Write a sequence for this structure.
């Protein structure tokens, strides 16, 4: 690893961490690294604000839906990733139809509440639904990718571990099992059973 | 006009109602009454909630989100950000759009304890503490106080109240397949629709307001005449379906267009999903508010708002007015105001460089400060500074509209062939020019719809509309509100830029501008303009934030529609229901969990005989000369030599060696096999088989026919099963020598022809699984019960079956296995025949056979026989190490103790090893690893008798 | 909602179909070393652009067919049935 070319000029560096969601396999390909990743849109929607009534985040693994109310009063609604891979973030009507139907199974009295906005982000899905952390076959090119639909909670500690890796050159024990080589070795991590919406 | 803050005279009177207007929508012959914050108000049929209140002199309709500033009328239509109210149980009703109904109970929102005495208004005093981004910063430190801040926010959260418990109301859906869908029923939309219909297209014309016409409705006599002509043209075309009070809320892939149709007689809202060959976007233009100090005071209105009030509702909007005008619409508003006898205090003509710098007043507007320092007393300030092009539907199709600084708005460019634009969004010009253009667009839309299947027909180019120059007026020399819904000021946007949010998308998220109920329609361009000003860029260089669907808010009820989730019942369901069986939802199936006492059901099967409805088992009939090949390829074990009359258990793996499904398959005849899958597996297995037959081995001659619901399946299990069956079969020799374990026989059972049954043993007892034509299922079931009454026959449910299979140590795919469990780890390695030439999963299983690092499934028994650890509990070592987990766990009525299946690391898998289960309450439960998965009759003697 | 041009039924809503993985070349299961086999199992080109994929008309004719789709825009360029046995060599 000698450096990267950016739209704002070249940067010389011996170490690059690829921590791009959505485009991690595209970025890795620039370094000649193959990743076992497929990009899927993940959609969410938000309703108009209403007076506060819902303290916990409600998740249903059966209905594949989550509902939470922000401090501003809006309900944030989400489900699992789209049924086919894409880099399009335009969103679909099917998503809002399905998420609405499932939310109303949980809260029938919300029928009159209106959806204000839907959006989509890109999720990098790995074969075992677990992230890929650490070194790659290219010296100095590290990855912290493949968090799929989650990572908000584990993201910070993964960053710390990656910093340790950069500083010491050694892979910290806490991320050892999440290495890229696990796919070639048949050592997948057992997170597949975890519902995507459960995180 | 009464000033804000004065209670209405009771009963309120329509003091601001004008003499009849040419285009008015109210029916003066039909007066009705409704209530507003507990007081009674009169209205005419056709009034909106707000027009009725304004006619009675009311000016304040809500409090703003952050600062709880009083808010009044701004746009007088659906988007009016200050006019959200609670109507009966429905929150956030658009009161400047929703029509009054007799007896309606309307309440203000965001005001506590009342609209006039709002405690939240104290936020105004501390507004310095509530700048944009306040969620992210101000209250982040000290962090320990976050829960306190959160409670404060929640108290003042905007919006109405969700009913605690209420029937959701009736909502509906509909599909439509128009050749041409026209979004917008103004002059351009009507002309385009009529032209498309004349060219032979079936047209769906969608208008957000209650009637067609757009701005012509508040026009002069000539415009009203044109309106009548256009309406007649639309009404005269039978191939146009008109939807009013309906909004096109989204354009998705391949012109999948969503329409929300509101307030139907039978439904609160209906979602229409239209696959349109061509979409014509003709939404008109949205008048843009002007940013200056006090621009959100009640009494500051847009020119289109006063024109609506005067012409459509005959409401006098104020006593003394200042008009800031930069265009013809502003000039026409002046004429309307003079006709309505509103005193013209000042006309501020922006085209001459004149400007307004501040609006002041307590509850409502009292005075206006003009550029140069002149202060004018007024209770009404009307602004007409320009337009926003609502390009949302175009953006949703991937179009990137371009900003034209001469016109001060965005214009569509590079439209795909199935998308056209007409009306103000496409350009300016006279009414005639716009109508002619729209007619051309409509005709071309019809032509393209016809030519859709013939891709060789190139689209015709369309004429262009002229584009007028207009002054670029966004903000005065003072700062004011840019986002009325979110209470974001221009100062907040400038502040965001100063903090480094130099991308408009980031500044939007930081300030939350455009993210409220008005969805950016009023505030987007002003936000962009202020942001551009602060960064020193121009608007084109700043770009816009993404318009995301829905274009107009749509109810969860309409999106959900009625539930059409299919539910599957076996043909025995009436009997189960009569017996009060406890239903269990298992995928699409609803089946009996038990009939009252699962433990008793287990004992009866172990001692006498029980029957269970296993109809949901997936069943496929496989016919053809190559079936054995398919089975041999699909399953890990061998199938080439399965004799007619025999049954075999098989495990199916994916290409990664992970268990996909399991079940028994029997050979009924030379070329006829019946394959069973798990109850949740048939769809996956069928898809898998079709994949193999269509893409990998298309030369194999096999027909696959699903038989799951065509057959009623009943398992008769228990030591007295043979005695019972002997009374019911004719011509089938049940002697164990003639019909041993793992064999299948066909014939009549209980007089029902066309049955087959096989001897298998999921429960571990002697059992016959009978498959009969579904229509005879109930008869067979009732005959079994009647015939075996003296034997103690009784039904058993899924729970008893699950207990018995756990006693026998049989795993359930998906419960005792997961997405990584390979055949060896599940303990069925003996089935895997690596010497077969090829089968699915073979490479991974070859390597798995050589590995010893994977957790394995074992039988487990807690040392304390009375504790049943929850399924999913972890097996732990020391403080932190997880070394396994419990996958199945029950109290065994047969053994009188708790029994489990679970995974442990291979070094712990030897019989007799003690491991610790961490219970949900944190206690450690010692459990013993057993020699077999089976806790009961591990040799399988009972089922072979 | 995306329209998928089923080779048998014509264009239908995507909700009738199941996406069934990228079109891949299967290595010889009896000869491929672990690295080659697992690359086939897990590695995907994941293109931001034209992708060749299998679709299954699950709620329709139950045909598997190949589709060329642009993953950035969902535009579908082509759809075709899998090659027939004659084109694939001996069984």
């Amino acid at each position: 690893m000698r450096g990267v070319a950016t739209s704002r000029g070249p940067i010389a560096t011996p170490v690059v961490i690829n921590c791009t969601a959505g485009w991690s396999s595209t970025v890795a390909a620039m370094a000649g690294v193959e990743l076992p990743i497929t990009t899927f849109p993940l959609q969410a929607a938000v309703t108009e604000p209403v007076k506060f009534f819902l303290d916990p985040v409600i998740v249903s693994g059966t209905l594949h839906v989550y509902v939470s109310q922000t401090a501003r009063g809006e309900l944030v609604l989400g489900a699992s990733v789209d049924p086919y891979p894409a880099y399009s973030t335009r969103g679909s009507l099917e998503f809002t139809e399905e998420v609405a139907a499932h939310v109303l199974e949980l809260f029938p009295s919300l029928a009159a509440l209106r959806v204000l906005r839907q959006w989509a982000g890109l999720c990098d899905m790995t074969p075992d639904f677990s992230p890929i952390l650490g070194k790659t076959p290219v010296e100095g090119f590290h990855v912290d990718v493949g968090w799929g639909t989650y990572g908000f909670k584990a993201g910070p500690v993964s960053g710390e571990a990656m910093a340790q890796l950069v500083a010491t050159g050694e892979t910290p024990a806490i991320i050892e099992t999440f290495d890229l080589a696990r796919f070639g070795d048949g050592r997948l991590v057992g997170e597949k059973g975890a519902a995507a919406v459960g995180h | 006009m009464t000033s804000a803050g004065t209670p209405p005279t009771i009963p309120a009177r329509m003091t601001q109602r004008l003499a009849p207007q040419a285009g008015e929508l109210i029916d003066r012959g039909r007066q009705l009454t409704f209530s507003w914050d507990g007081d009674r108000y009169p209205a005419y049929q056709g009034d909106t909630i707000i027009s009725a209140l304004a006619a009675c002199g009311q000016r304040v309709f809500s409090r703003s989100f952050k600062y709880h500033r009083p808010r009044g009328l701004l746009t007088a239509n659906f988007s009016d950000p200050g006019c959200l109210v609670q109507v009966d149980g429905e929150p956030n009703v658009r009161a400047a759009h929703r029509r009054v109904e007799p007896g309606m109970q309307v309440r203000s929102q965001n005001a506590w304890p009342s609209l006039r005495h709002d405690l939240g208004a104290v936020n105004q005093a501390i507004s310095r503490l509530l700048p944009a981004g306040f969620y992210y910063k101000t209250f982040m430190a000290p962090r320990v106080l976050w829960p306190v801040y959160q409670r404060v926010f929640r108290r003042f959260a905007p919006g109405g109240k969700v009913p605690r418990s209420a029937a959701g109301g009736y909502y509906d859906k509909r599909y439509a397949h128009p050749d041409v869908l026209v979004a917008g029923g103004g002059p351009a939309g009507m002309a385009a629709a009529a032209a498309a219909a004349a060219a032979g297209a079936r047209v769906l014309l969608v208008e957000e307001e209650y009637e067609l016409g757009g701005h012509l409705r508040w026009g002069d006599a000539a415009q009203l005449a044109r309106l009548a002509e256009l309406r007649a043209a639309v009404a005269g075309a039978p191939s146009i379906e008109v939807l009013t009070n309906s909004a096109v809320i989204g354009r998705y892939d391949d012109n999948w267009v969503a329409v929300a149709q509101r307030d139907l007689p039978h439904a609160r809202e209906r979602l229409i999903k239209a696959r349109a060959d061509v979409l014509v976007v003709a939404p008109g233009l949205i008048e843009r508010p002007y940013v200056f100090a006090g621009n959100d005071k009640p009494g500051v209105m847009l020119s289109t708002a006063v024109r609506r009030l005067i012409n459509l509702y005959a409401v006098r909007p104020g006593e003394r007015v200042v008009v800031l005008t930069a265009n013809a619409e502003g000039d026409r508003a002046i004429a309307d105001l003079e006709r309505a006898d509103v005193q013209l205090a000042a006309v501020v003509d922006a085209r001459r460089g004149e400007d307004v710098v501040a609006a002041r007043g307590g509850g409502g507007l009292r005075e206006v400060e003009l550029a140069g320092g002149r202060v004018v007393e007024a209770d009404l300030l009307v602004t007409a500074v320009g337009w926003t092009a609502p390009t949302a539907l175009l953006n949703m199709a991937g179009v990137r509209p371009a900003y034209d600084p001469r016109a001060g708005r965005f214009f569509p460019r590079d439209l795909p062939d199935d998308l056209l634009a007409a009306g103000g969004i496409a350009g300016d010009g006279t009414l005639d020019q716009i109508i002619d253009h729209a007619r051309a667009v409509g005709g071309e839309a019809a032509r393209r719809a016809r030519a859709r299947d013939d891709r060789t027909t190139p689209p015709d180019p369309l004429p262009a509309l002229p584009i007028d120059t207009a002054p670029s007026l966004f903000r005065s020399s003072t700062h004011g509100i840019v986002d009325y819904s979110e209470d974001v000021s221009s100062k907040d946007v400038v502040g965001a830029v100063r903090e480094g949010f130099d991308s408009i998308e980031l500044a939007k998220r930081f300030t939350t501008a455009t993210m409220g109920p008005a969805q950016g329609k009023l505030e987007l361009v002003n936000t962009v303009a202020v942001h551009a000003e602060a960064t020193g860029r121009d608007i084109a260089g700043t770009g816009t934030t993404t318009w995301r669907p829905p274009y107009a808010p749509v109810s969860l009820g309409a999106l959900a529609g009625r539930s059409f989730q299919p539910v599957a019942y076996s043909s025995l369901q009436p009997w189960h229901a009569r017996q009060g069986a406890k239903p269990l939802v298992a995928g699409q199936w609803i089946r009996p969990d038990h009939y009252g006492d699962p433990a008793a059901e287990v004992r009866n099967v172990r001692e006498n005989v029980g029957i269970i409805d296993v109809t949901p088992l997936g069943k496929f009939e496989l016919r053809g000369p190559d079936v054995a090949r398919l089975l041999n390829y699909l399953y890990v074990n061998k199938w080439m030599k399965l004799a007619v009359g025999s049954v075999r258990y098989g495990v199916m793996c994916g290409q990664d060696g992970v268990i996909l499904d399991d079940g028994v398959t029997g050979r009924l005849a030379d070329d006829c096999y019946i394959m069973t899958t798990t109850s949740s597996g048939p769809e996956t297995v069928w898809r898998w088989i079709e994949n193999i037959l269509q893409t990998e081995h298309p030369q194999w001659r096999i027909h696959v026919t699903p038989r799951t619901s065509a057959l009623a399946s009943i398992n008769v299990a228990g030591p007295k099963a043979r005695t019972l069956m002997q009374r019911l079969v004719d011509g089938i020799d049940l002697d164990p020598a003639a019909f041993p374990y793992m064999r299948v026989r066909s014939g009549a059972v209980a007089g029902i022809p066309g049955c087959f049954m096989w001897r298998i043993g999921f429960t571990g007892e002697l059992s016959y699984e009978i498959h009969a034509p579904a229509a005879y299922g109930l008869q067979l079931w009732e005959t079994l019960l009647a015939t075996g009454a003296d034997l103690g026959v009784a039904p058993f449910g899924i729970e008893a079956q699950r207990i018995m299979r756990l006693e026998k140590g049989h795993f359930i795919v998906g419960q005792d296995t997961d997405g990584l469990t390979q055949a060896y780890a599940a303990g069925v390695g003996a089935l895997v025949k690596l010497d077969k030439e090829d089968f699915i999963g073979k490479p991974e299983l070859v390597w798995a056979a050589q590995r010893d690092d994977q957790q394995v499934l074992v039988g487990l028994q807690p040392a304390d026989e009375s504790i049943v650890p929850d399924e999913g509990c972890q097996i732990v070592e020391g403080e932190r190490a997880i070394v396994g987990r419990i996958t199945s766990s029950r109290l065994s009525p047969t053994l009188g103790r708790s029994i489990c299946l679970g995974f442990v690391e291979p070094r712990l898998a030897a019989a007799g090893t003690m491991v610790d289960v961490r219970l949900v309450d944190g206690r450690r439960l010692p459990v013993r690893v057993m020699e077999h998965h089976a806790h009961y009759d591990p040799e399988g003697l009972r089922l072979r008798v | 909602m995306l329209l998928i041009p089923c080779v048998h039924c014509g264009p239908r809503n995507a909700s009738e179909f199941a996406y069934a993985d990228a079109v891949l070349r299967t290595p010889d299961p009896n000869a491929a070393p672990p690295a080659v086999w697992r690359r086939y199992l897990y590695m995907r080109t994941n293109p931001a652009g034209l992708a060749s994929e299998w679709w299954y008309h699950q709620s329709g004719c139950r045909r598997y067919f190949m589709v060329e789709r642009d993953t950035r825009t969902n535009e579908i360029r082509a759809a075709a049935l899998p090659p027939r046995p004659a084109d694939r060599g001996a069984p």
Notes: The two ends of chain B are 97 Å apart (CA to CA). The interface with chain C takes residues 252-254, 256, 273, 275, 398, 655-656, 683, 686-687, 690-691, 694-700, 837-838, 842-844, 847 of chain B (CB under 8 Å).
